[in-house]
Amino acid sequence: MPNQSSKPNGRLDRRSLIGAAGGAVVATMLSRRSRAMDTEDTRATDATAIGDSTLPSSADLEPLSAADFDGLGVCTLLPEMTAGPFPLDEQFDRRDVTEGYPGHPLRLGLRVVAGDCAAVGGATVEIWHTDATGDYSAFADGGGGKDEAEGTTFLRGSQTAGDDGIVEFQTIYPGWYPGRAVHIHVRVHLDDENVVTSQLFFDDTYTSAVYSDGPYPEFGEPDTLLADDAVAGNIDISGAVLQLSVADTVNGPGTLGLLNVGL
Question: Is 155 in contact with 172 (CB distance < 8 Å)?
Answer without folding.
Answer: yes
